[in-house]
Amino acid sequence: MDMFSLNTNMSGDVAIVTASGRFDSETSPSLDAELTKAASEKNKIVLELKGVEYMSSAGIRAIVKAAQAVEQSGGSVKMASAPELVTSIFYTVGIVDKIKSYSTVDEAIASF
User: Total domain count for the chain?
Assistant: First the structure.
């Protein structure tokens, strides 16, 4: 049984991808597919991570890949409601400047 969930909603010109659970080598391809789909439709993505319990390098790779895709069309990916374990990973790998983190989805949307 997969211990994760993904959901995408639109708010104007922003795609909001809500992720929760564990993102490891088995489940991260689903995150990659969801983010790739969102990036093909919108160049502004908010990734709400409130319920994420674990994020492997495969999950980080999916997020960075989406950020690179939307940057080509002038957009960006923002994180919202990320737990400390996720933000600490982003600091450790040095991409916290590339993918900004906000306390709420509304703050992330307002930052575009």
Answer: 1
